[in-house]
Amino acid sequence: MSAMTRPNGNGLSLWHAVSRNHCDRLTLQGGLDVDLAIVGAGFSGLSTALHAAEKGLSVAVLEAECIAWGATGRNAGFVVPNFAKRDPDDIVAKLGTERGERLIDFAAGSADLVFGLIKRHRIECDALQNGWIQPTHTTAASEKTKSRAEQWARRGRPAVALDSRAVTELTGIRGYVGGWMDKSGGVLNPVEFARGLADAAERAGARIFERTRVTSIDRLPDGWALKAATGTVRAGKVLVATNAYGDALNPVLALTYVPLTVFQIATEPLPRDLRARLLPGGQGVGDTRRNLFTCRFDGQNRLISGGMHIIGAGAERRVPQAIWRRLARHLDLADLPPIAYSWTGVAAIEPDFLPRLIDLGPDMIAGFGCNGRGIAMTTAMGKALADWASGADAHDLPLPSAPPSPIPLHGVVRYAPNVMLAWSILRDRMEGASHNATKAK
Ligand SMILES: Cc1cc2nc3c(=O)[nH]c(=O)nc-3n(C[C@H](O)[C@H](O)[C@H](O)COP(=O)(O)OP(=O)(O)OC[C@H]3O[C@@H](n4cnc5c(N)ncnc54)[C@H](O)[C@@H]3O)c2cc1C
User: How close is the Cα of 372 to the center of ligand 1, in Å?
Assistant: First the structure.
Protein backbone atom coordinates (compact mmCIF):
# COMPACT_ATOMS: atom_id res chain seq x y z
CA MET A 1 0.00 0.00 0.00
CA SER A 2 1.45 3.41 -0.87
CA ALA A 3 2.21 6.28 1.47
CA MET A 4 -0.84 8.09 0.06
CA THR A 5 -3.31 5.64 1.53
CA ARG A 6 -6.16 7.45 3.22
CA PRO A 7 -7.97 6.22 6.33
CA ASN A 8 -11.19 4.24 6.36
CA GLY A 9 -14.10 4.59 8.77
CA ASN A 10 -15.61 8.02 8.62
CA GLY A 11 -12.51 9.33 6.85
CA LEU A 12 -13.11 11.01 3.55
CA SER A 13 -12.95 9.45 0.10
CA LEU A 14 -10.82 9.72 -3.03
CA TRP A 15 -13.40 12.16 -4.35
CA HIS A 16 -13.12 14.48 -1.35
CA ALA A 17 -9.33 14.36 -1.62
CA VAL A 18 -9.08 15.22 -5.33
CA SER A 19 -11.98 17.70 -5.64
CA ARG A 20 -12.15 21.48 -5.12
CA ASN A 21 -11.99 22.93 -1.61
CA HIS A 22 -15.19 22.39 0.25
CA CYS A 23 -17.11 23.16 3.42
CA ASP A 24 -17.04 26.91 2.85
CA ARG A 25 -20.76 27.55 3.37
CA LEU A 26 -22.08 29.38 6.43
CA THR A 27 -23.49 27.68 9.51
CA LEU A 28 -27.12 28.63 10.24
CA GLN A 29 -27.31 31.58 12.64
CA GLY A 30 -30.63 32.74 14.09
CA GLY A 31 -34.04 32.28 12.49
CA LEU A 32 -35.23 31.73 8.93
CA ASP A 33 -38.66 31.21 7.30
CA VAL A 34 -38.89 29.13 4.09
CA ASP A 35 -41.36 27.18 1.97
CA LEU A 36 -39.18 24.05 2.03
CA ALA A 37 -36.53 22.94 4.52
CA ILE A 38 -34.28 20.04 3.52
CA VAL A 39 -32.22 18.04 6.02
CA GLY A 40 -29.09 16.62 4.34
CA ALA A 41 -26.94 17.89 1.46
CA GLY A 42 -26.42 14.72 -0.57
CA PHE A 43 -27.80 14.16 -4.07
CA SER A 44 -31.39 13.81 -2.75
CA GLY A 45 -31.36 17.08 -0.82
CA LEU A 46 -29.39 19.05 -3.42
CA SER A 47 -31.39 17.91 -6.45
CA THR A 48 -34.64 18.71 -4.61
CA ALA A 49 -33.26 22.11 -3.60
CA LEU A 50 -32.26 22.93 -7.18
CA HIS A 51 -35.55 21.86 -8.75
CA ALA A 52 -37.69 23.48 -6.00
CA ALA A 53 -35.77 26.77 -6.16
CA GLU A 54 -36.18 26.77 -9.95
CA LYS A 55 -39.94 26.57 -9.36
CA GLY A 56 -39.73 29.75 -7.28
CA LEU A 57 -39.92 28.21 -3.78
CA SER A 58 -37.77 29.55 -0.94
CA VAL A 59 -35.50 26.69 0.14
CA ALA A 60 -33.03 26.08 3.00
CA VAL A 61 -30.75 23.01 3.07
CA LEU A 62 -29.33 22.12 6.50
CA GLU A 63 -26.30 19.81 6.45
CA ALA A 64 -24.76 18.42 9.65
CA GLU A 65 -21.25 18.19 8.16
CA CYS A 66 -20.38 19.31 4.61
CA ILE A 67 -21.95 18.96 1.18
CA ALA A 68 -21.55 15.33 -0.02
CA TRP A 69 -20.31 14.11 3.36
CA GLY A 70 -22.58 11.02 3.35
CA ALA A 71 -22.95 8.26 0.75
CA THR A 72 -22.96 10.96 -1.96
CA GLY A 73 -19.26 11.64 -1.44
CA ARG A 74 -18.24 8.03 -0.81
CA ASN A 75 -19.76 6.11 -3.70
CA ALA A 76 -18.09 4.72 -6.81
CA GLY A 77 -19.54 7.21 -9.26
CA PHE A 78 -21.47 4.78 -11.50
CA VAL A 79 -24.54 6.39 -13.06
CA VAL A 80 -26.97 3.49 -13.49
CA PRO A 81 -30.48 4.09 -14.84
CA ASN A 82 -32.08 0.80 -13.76
CA PHE A 83 -33.01 -1.15 -10.65
CA ALA A 84 -30.79 -3.38 -8.55
CA LYS A 85 -32.19 -6.94 -8.70
CA ARG A 86 -35.49 -5.94 -10.36
CA ASP A 87 -36.44 -5.97 -14.04
CA PRO A 88 -39.22 -3.91 -15.66
CA ASP A 89 -41.65 -6.83 -16.17
CA ASP A 90 -41.15 -7.85 -12.57
CA ILE A 91 -41.97 -4.30 -11.39
CA VAL A 92 -45.14 -4.22 -13.46
CA ALA A 93 -46.14 -7.56 -11.92
CA LYS A 94 -45.54 -6.13 -8.44
CA LEU A 95 -47.02 -2.62 -8.78
CA GLY A 96 -49.50 -3.04 -11.65
CA THR A 97 -49.22 -1.58 -15.15
CA GLU A 98 -49.94 2.07 -14.41
CA ARG A 99 -47.77 2.57 -11.31
CA GLY A 100 -45.16 0.09 -12.51
CA GLU A 101 -44.63 1.76 -15.89
CA ARG A 102 -44.42 5.21 -14.22
CA LEU A 103 -41.67 4.00 -11.92
CA ILE A 104 -39.87 2.33 -14.84
CA ASP A 105 -40.10 5.57 -16.86
CA PHE A 106 -38.72 7.49 -13.87
CA ALA A 107 -35.67 5.20 -13.63
CA ALA A 108 -35.19 4.94 -17.39
CA GLY A 109 -34.68 8.68 -17.81
CA SER A 110 -32.61 9.14 -14.64
CA ALA A 111 -29.12 8.97 -16.20
CA ASP A 112 -30.16 11.31 -19.01
CA LEU A 113 -31.38 13.71 -16.31
CA VAL A 114 -28.01 13.56 -14.50
CA PHE A 115 -25.95 14.17 -17.64
CA GLY A 116 -28.46 16.81 -18.82
CA LEU A 117 -28.04 18.74 -15.53
CA ILE A 118 -24.26 18.48 -15.84
CA LYS A 119 -24.45 20.00 -19.32
CA ARG A 120 -27.04 22.65 -18.46
CA HIS A 121 -25.21 23.86 -15.35
CA ARG A 122 -21.72 23.31 -16.80
CA ILE A 123 -20.68 21.08 -13.90
CA GLU A 124 -17.08 19.92 -14.21
CA CYS A 125 -17.10 16.43 -12.74
CA ASP A 126 -15.24 14.15 -15.20
CA ALA A 127 -18.62 12.96 -16.47
CA LEU A 128 -18.69 10.37 -19.25
CA GLN A 129 -22.01 9.08 -20.61
CA ASN A 130 -20.59 6.14 -22.49
CA GLY A 131 -22.63 3.32 -20.97
CA TRP A 132 -22.88 1.03 -17.96
CA ILE A 133 -22.00 -2.62 -18.57
CA GLN A 134 -23.24 -5.62 -16.58
CA PRO A 135 -21.19 -8.68 -17.62
CA THR A 136 -22.47 -12.12 -16.65
CA HIS A 137 -20.57 -14.83 -14.83
CA THR A 138 -22.81 -17.80 -15.81
CA THR A 139 -24.98 -18.93 -18.72
CA ALA A 140 -28.10 -18.63 -16.52
CA ALA A 141 -27.19 -15.02 -15.69
CA SER A 142 -26.71 -14.34 -19.41
CA GLU A 143 -30.22 -15.56 -20.18
CA LYS A 144 -31.50 -13.19 -17.51
CA THR A 145 -29.58 -10.14 -18.77
CA LYS A 146 -30.63 -10.91 -22.35
CA SER A 147 -34.23 -10.63 -21.21
CA ARG A 148 -33.32 -7.54 -19.10
CA ALA A 149 -31.87 -5.76 -22.15
CA GLU A 150 -34.90 -6.74 -24.22
CA GLN A 151 -37.34 -5.42 -21.58
CA TRP A 152 -35.59 -2.02 -21.45
CA ALA A 153 -35.15 -1.85 -25.25
CA ARG A 154 -38.89 -2.55 -25.66
CA ARG A 155 -39.44 0.63 -23.63
CA GLY A 156 -37.25 2.66 -25.97
CA ARG A 157 -34.06 2.57 -23.92
CA PRO A 158 -30.57 2.23 -25.50
CA ALA A 159 -30.10 -1.24 -24.00
CA VAL A 160 -28.22 -4.01 -25.85
CA ALA A 161 -27.36 -7.62 -25.00
CA LEU A 162 -23.66 -8.49 -25.33
CA ASP A 163 -21.96 -11.80 -26.09
CA SER A 164 -18.70 -12.88 -24.49
CA ARG A 165 -16.59 -11.38 -27.31
CA ALA A 166 -18.35 -8.02 -27.16
CA VAL A 167 -17.79 -7.85 -23.39
CA THR A 168 -14.07 -8.53 -23.85
CA GLU A 169 -13.82 -5.94 -26.64
CA LEU A 170 -15.55 -3.28 -24.53
CA THR A 171 -13.86 -4.01 -21.21
CA GLY A 172 -10.62 -5.85 -21.94
CA ILE A 173 -11.74 -8.41 -19.33
CA ARG A 174 -11.81 -12.09 -20.34
CA GLY A 175 -13.93 -14.93 -19.02
CA TYR A 176 -17.42 -13.43 -18.92
CA VAL A 177 -20.20 -15.42 -20.61
CA GLY A 178 -22.02 -12.33 -21.95
CA GLY A 179 -23.93 -9.41 -20.47
CA TRP A 180 -25.73 -6.23 -21.43
CA MET A 181 -25.16 -2.51 -21.59
CA ASP A 182 -27.36 0.54 -21.05
CA LYS A 183 -25.69 3.17 -23.23
CA SER A 184 -27.27 6.04 -21.28
CA GLY A 185 -25.34 5.11 -18.11
CA GLY A 186 -21.84 6.32 -17.31
CA VAL A 187 -19.43 7.54 -14.66
CA LEU A 188 -18.60 10.80 -12.87
CA ASN A 189 -16.84 12.30 -9.86
CA PRO A 190 -19.72 12.34 -7.33
CA VAL A 191 -18.32 15.07 -5.05
CA GLU A 192 -17.85 17.48 -7.95
CA PHE A 193 -21.33 16.60 -9.26
CA ALA A 194 -22.86 17.27 -5.82
CA ARG A 195 -20.99 20.56 -5.47
CA GLY A 196 -22.12 21.55 -8.95
CA LEU A 197 -25.74 20.82 -7.96
CA ALA A 198 -25.23 22.92 -4.80
CA ASP A 199 -23.82 25.86 -6.79
CA ALA A 200 -26.72 25.64 -9.26
CA ALA A 201 -29.27 25.47 -6.42
CA GLU A 202 -27.75 28.58 -4.83
CA ARG A 203 -27.79 30.42 -8.16
CA ALA A 204 -31.52 29.57 -8.33
CA GLY A 205 -31.99 31.12 -4.86
CA ALA A 206 -31.67 28.18 -2.41
CA ARG A 207 -29.66 28.67 0.79
CA ILE A 208 -27.32 25.91 1.96
CA PHE A 209 -25.92 25.76 5.48
CA GLU A 210 -23.06 23.45 6.43
CA ARG A 211 -22.05 22.25 9.91
CA THR A 212 -25.71 22.68 10.87
CA ARG A 213 -27.01 19.49 12.45
CA VAL A 214 -30.80 19.37 12.86
CA THR A 215 -31.52 18.07 16.34
CA SER A 216 -35.33 18.13 16.31
CA ILE A 217 -38.26 18.75 13.99
CA ASP A 218 -41.42 19.95 15.75
CA ARG A 219 -44.94 20.47 14.44
CA LEU A 220 -46.29 24.04 14.34
CA PRO A 221 -49.89 25.06 13.52
CA ASP A 222 -48.75 26.16 10.03
CA GLY A 223 -45.70 23.99 9.31
CA TRP A 224 -42.59 22.75 11.05
CA ALA A 225 -39.71 24.10 13.18
CA LEU A 226 -36.28 22.58 12.57
CA LYS A 227 -33.86 23.22 15.41
CA ALA A 228 -30.09 23.25 15.22
CA ALA A 229 -27.61 24.35 17.89
CA THR A 230 -27.19 27.78 16.29
CA GLY A 231 -30.63 28.57 14.88
CA THR A 232 -34.14 27.52 13.85
CA VAL A 233 -35.80 27.22 10.46
CA ARG A 234 -39.58 27.46 10.14
CA ALA A 235 -40.82 25.71 7.02
CA GLY A 236 -44.12 24.92 5.33
CA LYS A 237 -42.74 21.56 4.15
CA VAL A 238 -39.82 19.37 5.16
CA LEU A 239 -37.78 16.81 3.25
CA VAL A 240 -35.67 14.47 5.37
CA ALA A 241 -32.82 13.50 3.00
CA THR A 242 -30.47 11.91 5.51
CA ASN A 243 -30.37 8.43 3.92
CA ALA A 244 -28.34 5.99 6.06
CA TYR A 245 -26.67 8.86 7.98
CA GLY A 246 -29.67 10.24 9.89
CA ASP A 247 -30.49 7.56 12.45
CA ALA A 248 -30.14 9.90 15.43
CA LEU A 249 -32.70 12.37 14.04
CA ASN A 250 -35.37 9.83 13.20
CA PRO A 251 -34.94 6.40 14.80
CA VAL A 252 -38.13 5.06 13.14
CA LEU A 253 -36.74 5.78 9.66
CA ALA A 254 -33.61 3.88 10.66
CA LEU A 255 -35.72 0.71 11.00
CA THR A 256 -37.02 0.89 7.42
CA TYR A 257 -33.78 -0.03 5.61
CA VAL A 258 -30.75 -2.28 6.02
CA PRO A 259 -27.51 -0.28 6.42
CA LEU A 260 -24.76 -1.80 4.33
CA THR A 261 -21.13 -0.78 4.86
CA VAL A 262 -19.29 -0.86 1.54
CA PHE A 263 -15.52 -0.51 1.07
CA GLN A 264 -13.99 1.27 -1.92
CA ILE A 265 -10.42 1.49 -3.17
CA ALA A 266 -8.65 3.53 -5.83
CA THR A 267 -5.22 2.50 -7.12
CA GLU A 268 -2.40 4.77 -8.12
CA PRO A 269 -2.88 5.87 -11.77
CA LEU A 270 -2.21 3.12 -14.31
CA PRO A 271 0.67 3.61 -16.76
CA ARG A 272 -0.49 4.41 -20.29
CA ASP A 273 0.15 0.90 -21.73
CA LEU A 274 -1.89 -0.82 -19.00
CA ARG A 275 -4.67 1.80 -19.22
CA ALA A 276 -4.99 1.21 -22.97
CA ARG A 277 -5.74 -2.50 -22.42
CA LEU A 278 -8.82 -1.90 -20.26
CA LEU A 279 -12.15 -0.13 -20.75
CA PRO A 280 -11.04 1.97 -23.75
CA GLY A 281 -14.47 3.67 -23.78
CA GLY A 282 -14.29 4.51 -20.06
CA GLN A 283 -17.58 2.76 -19.15
CA GLY A 284 -18.52 1.56 -15.66
CA VAL A 285 -18.69 -2.21 -15.00
CA GLY A 286 -20.70 -4.06 -12.33
CA ASP A 287 -21.12 -7.80 -12.90
CA THR A 288 -23.81 -10.33 -11.90
CA ARG A 289 -21.93 -12.10 -9.10
CA ARG A 290 -23.71 -12.18 -5.75
CA ASN A 291 -20.46 -10.80 -4.34
CA LEU A 292 -20.57 -8.03 -6.91
CA PHE A 293 -17.38 -7.15 -8.81
CA THR A 294 -17.14 -3.54 -10.02
CA CYS A 295 -14.51 -1.45 -11.75
CA ARG A 296 -14.05 1.87 -13.51
CA PHE A 297 -11.35 4.49 -14.12
CA ASP A 298 -11.43 8.01 -12.74
CA GLY A 299 -10.25 11.06 -14.69
CA GLN A 300 -6.61 10.42 -13.65
CA ASN A 301 -6.61 6.73 -14.72
CA ARG A 302 -6.91 5.34 -11.20
CA LEU A 303 -8.79 2.04 -11.09
CA ILE A 304 -11.68 2.03 -8.62
CA SER A 305 -13.31 -1.07 -7.19
CA GLY A 306 -15.34 -1.99 -4.13
CA GLY A 307 -16.67 -4.76 -1.94
CA MET A 308 -18.19 -5.79 1.35
CA HIS A 309 -16.72 -7.67 4.25
CA ILE A 310 -18.05 -10.60 6.21
CA ILE A 311 -17.44 -9.79 9.87
CA GLY A 312 -14.43 -9.53 12.08
CA ALA A 313 -11.77 -7.33 13.51
CA GLY A 314 -9.24 -5.58 11.30
CA ALA A 315 -11.62 -5.23 8.32
CA GLU A 316 -10.40 -1.71 7.58
CA ARG A 317 -6.90 -2.99 6.90
CA ARG A 318 -7.81 -6.41 5.47
CA VAL A 319 -10.73 -5.64 3.11
CA PRO A 320 -9.05 -3.01 0.87
CA GLN A 321 -6.18 -5.47 0.28
CA ALA A 322 -8.66 -8.24 -0.57
CA ILE A 323 -10.45 -5.91 -3.03
CA TRP A 324 -7.09 -5.02 -4.63
CA ARG A 325 -6.12 -8.70 -5.02
CA ARG A 326 -9.50 -9.48 -6.56
CA LEU A 327 -9.13 -6.56 -8.98
CA ALA A 328 -5.67 -7.76 -10.06
CA ARG A 329 -7.01 -11.32 -10.52
CA HIS A 330 -10.15 -10.40 -12.49
CA LEU A 331 -8.30 -8.00 -14.75
CA ASP A 332 -5.36 -10.37 -15.08
CA LEU A 333 -2.97 -7.57 -14.07
CA ALA A 334 0.07 -8.89 -12.22
CA ASP A 335 1.48 -5.36 -12.22
CA LEU A 336 -1.61 -3.54 -10.89
CA PRO A 337 -0.41 -0.33 -9.17
CA PRO A 338 -0.87 -0.21 -5.38
CA ILE A 339 -3.82 1.26 -3.49
CA ALA A 340 -3.72 5.05 -3.24
CA TYR A 341 -7.03 5.62 -1.42
CA SER A 342 -9.42 3.42 0.53
CA TRP A 343 -12.61 4.45 2.28
CA THR A 344 -16.04 3.23 3.36
CA GLY A 345 -19.62 4.42 3.06
CA VAL A 346 -22.99 3.22 4.27
CA ALA A 347 -25.71 2.45 1.73
CA ALA A 348 -29.40 2.19 2.65
CA ILE A 349 -30.84 -1.01 1.15
CA GLU A 350 -34.61 -1.34 0.88
CA PRO A 351 -36.18 -4.77 1.45
CA ASP A 352 -37.71 -4.76 -2.07
CA PHE A 353 -34.74 -3.00 -3.75
CA LEU A 354 -37.00 -0.16 -4.98
CA PRO A 355 -36.68 3.59 -4.40
CA ARG A 356 -39.42 5.00 -2.17
CA LEU A 357 -40.89 7.99 -0.36
CA ILE A 358 -41.87 7.75 3.29
CA ASP A 359 -44.70 9.92 4.67
CA LEU A 360 -43.59 11.32 8.02
CA GLY A 361 -46.67 13.39 8.76
CA PRO A 362 -48.51 16.27 7.09
CA ASP A 363 -46.07 18.05 4.75
CA MET A 364 -43.03 16.06 5.83
CA ILE A 365 -41.50 13.31 3.70
CA ALA A 366 -38.31 11.26 3.44
CA GLY A 367 -36.79 9.87 0.23
CA PHE A 368 -34.73 6.72 -0.16
CA GLY A 369 -33.53 5.83 -3.63
CA CYS A 370 -30.26 4.06 -3.08
CA ASN A 371 -29.90 0.30 -3.44
CA GLY A 372 -26.57 1.09 -5.14
CA ARG A 373 -28.30 3.15 -7.84
CA GLY A 374 -28.47 6.40 -5.87
CA ILE A 375 -26.72 8.82 -8.22
CA ALA A 376 -29.29 8.56 -10.97
CA MET A 377 -32.28 7.64 -8.77
CA THR A 378 -31.89 10.27 -6.05
CA THR A 379 -31.25 13.01 -8.63
CA ALA A 380 -34.49 12.02 -10.38
CA MET A 381 -36.23 11.71 -7.02
CA GLY A 382 -35.26 15.32 -6.26
CA LYS A 383 -37.07 16.49 -9.38
CA ALA A 384 -40.21 14.60 -8.32
CA LEU A 385 -39.95 15.90 -4.75
CA ALA A 386 -39.83 19.47 -6.04
CA ASP A 387 -43.28 18.78 -7.56
CA TRP A 388 -44.44 17.58 -4.13
CA ALA A 389 -42.98 20.70 -2.48
CA SER A 390 -44.92 22.91 -4.86
CA GLY A 391 -48.25 21.20 -4.27
CA ALA A 392 -48.46 17.79 -5.97
CA ASP A 393 -49.85 14.91 -3.91
CA ALA A 394 -47.10 12.44 -2.91
CA HIS A 395 -49.25 9.59 -4.23
CA ASP A 396 -49.23 11.16 -7.70
CA LEU A 397 -45.42 11.08 -7.93
CA PRO A 398 -43.79 8.23 -9.88
CA LEU A 399 -42.28 6.64 -6.74
CA PRO A 400 -44.19 4.47 -4.27
CA SER A 401 -44.96 6.32 -1.02
CA ALA A 402 -46.21 5.04 2.34
CA PRO A 403 -45.84 5.67 6.08
CA PRO A 404 -42.71 4.18 7.70
CA SER A 405 -42.80 0.40 7.76
CA PRO A 406 -40.14 -0.94 10.15
CA ILE A 407 -38.47 -4.16 9.00
CA PRO A 408 -39.41 -7.00 11.39
CA LEU A 409 -36.47 -8.18 13.54
CA HIS A 410 -34.42 -5.26 12.24
CA GLY A 411 -31.77 -5.77 14.95
CA VAL A 412 -30.99 -9.17 13.41
CA VAL A 413 -31.81 -8.49 9.76
CA ARG A 414 -29.36 -5.55 9.60
CA TYR A 415 -26.47 -8.05 9.79
CA ALA A 416 -27.93 -10.38 7.14
CA PRO A 417 -25.97 -9.02 4.13
CA ASN A 418 -22.63 -9.54 5.91
CA VAL A 419 -23.59 -13.00 7.11
CA MET A 420 -24.94 -13.96 3.66
CA LEU A 421 -21.74 -12.81 2.00
CA ALA A 422 -19.81 -15.95 2.92
CA TRP A 423 -22.57 -18.09 1.32
CA SER A 424 -22.65 -15.79 -1.72
CA ILE A 425 -18.90 -16.07 -2.25
CA LEU A 426 -19.14 -19.87 -2.03
CA ARG A 427 -22.02 -19.98 -4.55
CA ASP A 428 -20.16 -17.63 -6.93
CA ARG A 429 -17.14 -19.94 -6.75
CA MET A 430 -19.23 -23.06 -7.35
CA GLU A 431 -20.96 -21.43 -10.34
CA GLY A 432 -17.60 -20.23 -11.64
CA ALA A 433 -16.23 -23.75 -11.37
CA SER A 434 -19.18 -25.32 -13.20
CA HIS A 435 -18.94 -22.63 -15.89
CA ASN A 436 -15.25 -23.42 -16.44
CA ALA A 437 -16.07 -27.14 -16.59
CA THR A 438 -18.73 -26.46 -19.26
CA LYS A 439 -16.25 -24.44 -21.31
CA ALA A 440 -13.68 -27.23 -21.11
CA LYS A 441 -16.04 -29.88 -22.54
C1 LIG B 1 -19.66 2.84 -0.83
C2 LIG B 1 -20.88 3.16 -1.66
C3 LIG B 1 -20.82 3.04 -3.04
C4 LIG B 1 -21.92 3.39 -3.83
N5 LIG B 1 -21.79 3.38 -5.17
C6 LIG B 1 -22.79 3.88 -5.93
C7 LIG B 1 -22.61 4.04 -7.33
O8 LIG B 1 -21.53 3.78 -7.88
N9 LIG B 1 -23.65 4.51 -8.05
C10 LIG B 1 -24.84 4.86 -7.47
O11 LIG B 1 -25.75 5.26 -8.19
N12 LIG B 1 -25.02 4.76 -6.14
C13 LIG B 1 -24.02 4.31 -5.35
N14 LIG B 1 -24.17 4.27 -4.01
C15 LIG B 1 -25.42 4.84 -3.42
C16 LIG B 1 -25.43 6.37 -3.41
O17 LIG B 1 -24.19 6.88 -3.00
C18 LIG B 1 -26.52 6.86 -2.46
O19 LIG B 1 -27.74 6.29 -2.85
C20 LIG B 1 -26.73 8.37 -2.52
O21 LIG B 1 -25.51 9.05 -2.39
C22 LIG B 1 -27.69 8.79 -1.42
O23 LIG B 1 -27.75 10.19 -1.42
P24 LIG B 1 -28.60 10.93 -0.33
O25 LIG B 1 -28.56 12.35 -0.64
O26 LIG B 1 -29.95 10.30 -0.23
O27 LIG B 1 -27.87 10.59 1.06
P28 LIG B 1 -26.42 10.96 1.60
O29 LIG B 1 -25.48 11.29 0.53
O30 LIG B 1 -26.02 9.85 2.52
O31 LIG B 1 -26.63 12.29 2.41
C32 LIG B 1 -27.26 12.34 3.66
C33 LIG B 1 -26.75 13.61 4.35
O34 LIG B 1 -27.55 13.89 5.49
C35 LIG B 1 -26.72 14.50 6.44
N36 LIG B 1 -27.37 14.41 7.75
C37 LIG B 1 -27.65 13.30 8.47
N38 LIG B 1 -28.27 13.64 9.64
C39 LIG B 1 -28.40 14.99 9.63
C40 LIG B 1 -28.96 15.92 10.55
N41 LIG B 1 -29.52 15.54 11.70
N42 LIG B 1 -28.92 17.24 10.24
C43 LIG B 1 -28.37 17.66 9.05
N44 LIG B 1 -27.83 16.81 8.15
C45 LIG B 1 -27.84 15.49 8.43
C46 LIG B 1 -25.43 13.70 6.35
O47 LIG B 1 -24.33 14.41 6.91
C48 LIG B 1 -25.30 13.48 4.85
O49 LIG B 1 -24.50 14.47 4.22
C50 LIG B 1 -23.12 3.86 -3.20
C51 LIG B 1 -23.20 3.94 -1.82
C52 LIG B 1 -22.09 3.61 -1.05
C53 LIG B 1 -22.18 3.75 0.45
Answer: 10
